[in-house]
Write a structure and sequence with these properties.
mainly alpha; two-stranded parallel ribbon; 16 helices; about 65% helix; flat
């Protein structure tokens, strides 16, 4: 493949021993800035909409009845935070990838005029493929959890249930909605793979990136199964906390933060040392992100989250928050909490009582402490990368790891984003 690291070409190296920090033989590129989340989201959204419009036309050509598939996917993938696409893009830049290579000022030797647009489009397609993987997971997750809403709107299976009723179809509307959503989720997953493959025309075929892509897909699916399993495990189970951390890491933390960063870095030709350092930043930040999601699922403002208050209690989620609470409450309280977890017919008063148990037990405070620790660890890695740049010109060389080096603008952007992920309200 062609590497998109400034001034460097060749195949992307496999993870493994890397050049020692500060080596004069292969100094890491200095990343002075990272593109804004808004500009990245705009690039990715444009590529995603164009791709889905193309696919929607194909579905309609098969049958006018299949028009609903394309319409549903276009609408479902609009909006959202675009967290995974932004992180893939930044992973590419952190590994020295030059998104604008070939434009005036571009330094990649083998870029030709006009190829910058192809590279930008390819990176946006790779990032958009993660958004489609995420959409597929959400569609199926809402079916599994029997959720009524998603982002303040009816969940997809509820939309198709309503379509069944409006159209006067025969049979059970709820069953039709579930069946349609399972199929559309599968289609969305297939389209995710197709869009990633298309991105490789501009980005090249990196074996490391392809393997990471497979790992992302595997982990989120295994994590989903572990989540389903956890919901039927008694709260008194000896591994309740360990199970909760497994679900948190593999269903969300890795594929939401760590793996998009790694995939982007691999697409830029990152070596093993860079991948390790980026992972050391991404995994704890991903864990903080999901821990915050768990808190919002219990005590979030419905106006901000788009979900009913205490929705995770009605859905029976065995989160780290629930595990920490279970370890701190009396046998009587545990019996109450266990009986109510997963009951979709709980009254608001019963949900509020469960929230009080979680808060009064110290479980919520424990999770807030975990979030603070994970966020602080991620922020320390960012500071280390900035310190590596500050020490790069000294006689002794960098005072910290030089596998990734960033300037103050990139440091500020990463730390601001990390704080927003860890302490968001929606």
């Amino acid at each position: 493949m062609t590497s998109h690291r400034s001034g460097m070409t060749g195949d992307a190296p496999e993870p493994g021993p890397s050049t020692a920090p500060g080596s004069a033989d292969a100094p890491p590129a200095l990343v002075e800035f990272l593109d804004s989340p808004e500009s990245i989201a705009a690039e990715v959204s444009a590529q995603l909409e164009a791709f889905l419009a193309e696919k929607a036309a194909e579905f309609e050509a098969i049958s006018p009845d299949a028009t609903a598939i394309g319409d549903a996917l276009i609408e479902f993938t609009r909006g959202g935070k675009r967290i995974r696409p932004v992180l893939l893009w930044w992973g590419f830049q952190l590994a020295g990838g030059d998104v604008r290579a070939g434009e005036a000022g571009g330094t990649t030797a083998d870029r030709t005029a006009g190829s910058a647009a192809d590279l930008t489009a390819g990176l946006a397609q790779a990032a958009g493929s993660l958004e489609l993987l995420h959409a597929a997971a959400l569609i199926h997750d809402d079916v599994i959890d029997n959720s009524d809403t998603r982002r303040g709107r009816p969940a997809l299976h509820r939309q198709f249930e309503a379509h069944h009723q409006r159209s006067g179809f025969h049979g059970d509307g709820a069953s039709f909605g579930v069946s349609a959503s399972i199929v559309i989720g599968d289609i969305c997953l297939a389209l995710s793979e197709e869009l990633f493959e298309r991105s490789q025309e501009a980005l090249g075929n990196s074996r490391t990136a392809l393997e990471l892509r497979g790992t992302v897909r595997r982990d989120v699916m295994v994590g989903q199964y572990l989540d389903v399993l956890a919901e039927v495990i008694p709260l008194s189970d000896d591994r309740i906390a360990e199970r909760a951390w497994e679900v948190l890491s593999y269903k969300s933390a890795k594929y939401s933060v760590e793996q998009p960063l790694l995939l982007g870095a691999a697409l830029a030709g990152a070596d093993g040392g860079q991948l390790q350092e980026i992972s050391a930043f991404g995994l704890p930040l991903g864990q903080a992100f999901q821990l915050r999601d768990d808190v919002l699922g219990i005590a979030g403002d419905p106006e901000a989250t788009g979900k009913p208050a205490g929705d995770d209690i009605r859905e029976g989620k065995r989160t780290v928050l629930i595990a920490e609470t279970a370890a701190r409450i009396s046998a009587d309280q545990l019996e109450v909490l266990a009986a109510r977890l997963g009951d979709p017919d709980l009254s608001d008063a019963e949900v509020a009582e469960c929230v009080d148990i979680i808060t009064d037990s110290g479980g919520l405070a424990a999770v807030e402490s975990f979030i603070a620790d994970k966020h602080a660890h991620a922020a320390t890695i960012v500071d280390t990368w900035a310190e590596a740049d500050a020490g790069a010109g000294s006689a002794a060389g960098p005072t910290a790891s030089a596998q990734v080096r960033i300037g103050s603008a990139a440091q500020e952007r990463l730390k601001g984003f990390a704080k927003a992920l860890s302490y968001r309200s929606s």
